[in-house]
Structures are given as structure tokens and as C-alpha cells.
């Protein structure tokens, strides 16, 4: 191999002379030391400065602009900007490092060696690249290196108002942001609008991109019967993880999305959403013209559906609970796809 770097050429000559004069084990030890010292010359400082690799990737769903449209449809004119956004990250292992990549200035090509000053690195013991703003309900300010550590059981709480229309020059914690931890975490995304307040709040679990899919079914929709009109508004919020992702609703193209982009589709029960690349899908439902009746759900891809489920709550608690069961496959002459049941806590459904 031809070596163009003059210093490396001199090192090669020196190593060859050492091998000739010293021979054996000592020469091999010298070779290892010199090889390590030469890494910055071969790959640059960034190769040594990169942080640990992430094991999960999340994109915060439900961008605030689209959420405001939903809030206003259900409760207009009370709901308005700004949107109060809350993102919670539950830490599951000591020594976890969390990379937080804001969408506003574009996603990092390598989050372990960030090129943008807005990207935060939490938990690496280096306060200069960021500290969590709030840990376990306590604001971390001012931040020191000793504060910049994460342990099993810690909860990072990110909360701010997001004014609309959205100005990308204003860096905020909000929908479309990317989160990449070095150990598994659990993430929840919640929000509510000004005016209507937390009466119209909702929250969803955020899935790691490994749990995204290309085929989803709306288990309820605007034609689903409900005594309380709970599904009068029903919409899928679809977010892409890769550029040039085409989305279809009942085989009709709804356009293309790039990474982190999202669209909203009003749906009926049983509508099928498919995509050319994996997407995450959340379902929002509500009673139009109500002041508080709204629910959010994270949808699992159709191939991940199963036959057995457990209900964590039921009618023996402080309020009534209804579980809606949906069967995507018609059997025989039956036309019933969904039913509502009121279970007791811990009831097995299958």
C-alpha cells in the first residue's frame, strides 16, 4: 500500500529498522504502540472523539402543527397555539448516554460525532455538550459534569410551549425530533393546546424504529358506533423514517414523505394504510364539539397483531373502562368486525 503522508512514511521506516534491530516480542510491542498513536493521522480527531453507538432510534411523533388542527377540529374555538409539549424518557440502565437530535437544523449524519451545536449529548459526564434540562422532576441548572450522568430509574422530562406557526429558527423540544440512546429506554409523548388546556390532553408510547411497519389497519374510525360519539373524529398520524416513503390509504397514494415528515389522514373503521418503507402510525380520536373527549393510541403494524391480550384496568376501578376488539378478517357470513367489552382488571382477552 502506498503511503502519501510524510510522517507515516518516516514511521514506517522507523518500524522496519526497529524490527531489524530488536526482533521478536519487543518489536511487536513497539509496532502496536506506534499504530495506536498514529490513529489521529489516519482517521482524524473525530474518529477518537466519537461517543458510544446508540442501540435504539426514536422520532417524536405528532408534530404540533398537525396536532393543533386535530385539537381545533374537536374543540374549536377554545383550542389554540401554543401547544404545551412534554416528552419523557425513562432510563433503564446505569451509564446510558442519550443523543438528542433536533429536526430544525437537519438531522445529524452521525449523531455520535455531532456537527450541529443544537444536538445534545446527555449522560456522558461532559456538561459542555449538554445536560438534561430536568431529571426526576428537578431542573438541572446550572449544569456541571457531575450532573451529566444517567442511572437506572432516572426520568428525563422535556417540557416547553411550541408556538404556531412553527419557526424552525427556534430550537425546541417537539415533534419530529430524533432521540438515540446507548441502552434501551422507554419514551412517552404528550401534549395539549392553550385555551382548552389539559382537559384536551393526550399521550402515546413512542416506538423504536425497529417496531415500525408498512401495513396498518384502523381498528376504529368515524363510522364506528359509540354511545358517546368517541370516534366522530378519527385520524391516522403517519411519520416516515426514510426519505421518499410513499404512503397509501386503501391502495390510493397519499403522497411521499421524507425522514421525520408526517401526514394526517381521516379514516373509517377497517381502512388500510400501507407504505413503501417503514412508518410509525398513531391514531387520534374524539367527540367533535366536546371540551375534553379525546384519546390517542399508538398502532402496531398488522403483522404484529396477536390473539391474546390482558387488560390492566377495568370496571372495578374508579371509572368505567371499555375495550374495543377488532378482527381484521371476516369469517363466514359475519359482518361484525369490532365489539366493545367492559372487562375486570387483569381480564385475559383472546
Structural notes for this entry:
This protein is of the alpha+beta class and 350 residues long. 15% of the residues lie in helices and 32% in strands. The protein is built from five helices and 21 strands. The strands form six sheets. Strands 11, 12, 13, 14, 15, 16 and 17 form a seven-stranded antiparallel beta sheet that branches. A four-stranded antiparallel beta sheet has the order 1-8-3-4, with no helix packed on it. Strands 7-2-9-10 form a four-stranded antiparallel beta sheet, with helices on one face. β16 (272-286) and β17 (294-298) form a beta hairpin. It is globular, with a radius of gyration of 26 Å. The N and C termini lie far apart (64 Å). The model is unreliable at 1-22 and 30-48 (pLDDT under 50).
Amino acid at each position: 500500500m502506498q503511503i502519501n503522508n510524510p510522517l507515516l512514511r518516516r514511521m514506517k521506516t522507523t518500524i522496519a529498522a526497529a524490527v531489524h534491530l530488536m526482533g521478536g516480542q519487543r518489536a511487536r510491542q513497539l509496532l502496536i504502540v506506534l499504530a495506536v498513536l498514529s490513529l489521529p493521522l489516519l482517521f482524524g480527531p473525530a474518529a477518537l472523539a466519537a461517543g458510544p453507538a446508540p442501540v435504539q432510534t426514536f422520532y417524536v411523533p405528532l408534530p404540533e402543527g398537525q396536532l393543533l388542527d386535530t385539537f381545533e377540529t374537536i374543540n374549536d374555538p377554545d383550542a389554540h397555539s401554543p401547544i404545551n409539549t412534554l416528552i419523557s424518557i425513562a432510563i433503564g440502565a446505569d451509564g446510558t448516554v442519550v443523543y438528542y437530535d433536533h429536526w430544525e437544523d437537519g438531522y445529524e449524519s452521525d449523531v455520535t460525532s455531532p456537527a450541529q451545536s443544537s444536538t445534545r449529548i446527555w449522560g456522558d459526564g461532559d456538561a459542555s455538550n449538554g445536560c438534561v434540562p430536568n431529571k426526576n422532576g428537578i431542573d438541572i441548572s446550572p449544569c456541571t459534569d457531575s450532573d451529566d450522568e444517567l442511572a437506572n430509574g432516572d426520568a428525563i422530562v422535556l417540557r416547553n410551549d411550541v408556538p404556531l406557526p412553527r419557526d424552525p429558527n427556534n430550537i425546541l423540544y417537539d415533534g419530529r425530533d430524533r432521540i438515540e440512546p446507548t441502552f434501551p429506554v422507554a419514551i412517552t409523548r404528550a401534549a395539549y393546546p392553550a385555551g382548552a388546556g389539559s382537559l384536551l390532553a393526550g399521550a402515546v408510547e413512542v416506538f423504536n424504529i425497529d417496531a415500525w411497519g408498512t401495513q396498518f389497519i384502523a381498528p376504529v374510525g368515524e363510522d364506528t358506533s359509540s354511545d358517546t360519539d368517541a370516534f366522530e373524529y378519527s385520524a391516522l398520524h403517519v411519520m416516515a423514517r426514510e426519505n421518499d416513503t410513499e404512503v397509501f390509504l386503501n391502495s390510493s397514494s397519499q403522497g411521499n414523505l421524507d425522514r421525520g415528515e408526517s401526514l394526517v389522514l381521516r379514516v373509517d373503521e377497517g381502512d388500510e394504510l400501507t407504505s413503501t418503507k417503514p412508518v410509525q402510525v398513531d391514531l387520534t380520536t374524539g367527540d367533535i364539539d366536546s371540551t375534553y373527549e379525546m384519546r390517542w393510541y399508538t398502532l402496531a403494524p398488522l403483522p404484529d397483531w396477536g390473539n391474546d391480550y390482558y387488560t390492566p384496568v377495568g370496571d372495578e376501578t374508579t371509572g368505567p373502562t371499555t375495550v374495543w376488539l377488532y378482527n381484521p378478517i371476516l369469517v363466514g357470513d359475519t359482518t361484525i368486525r369490532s365489539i366493545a367489552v367492559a372487562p375486570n382488571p387483569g381480564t385475559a382477552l383472546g
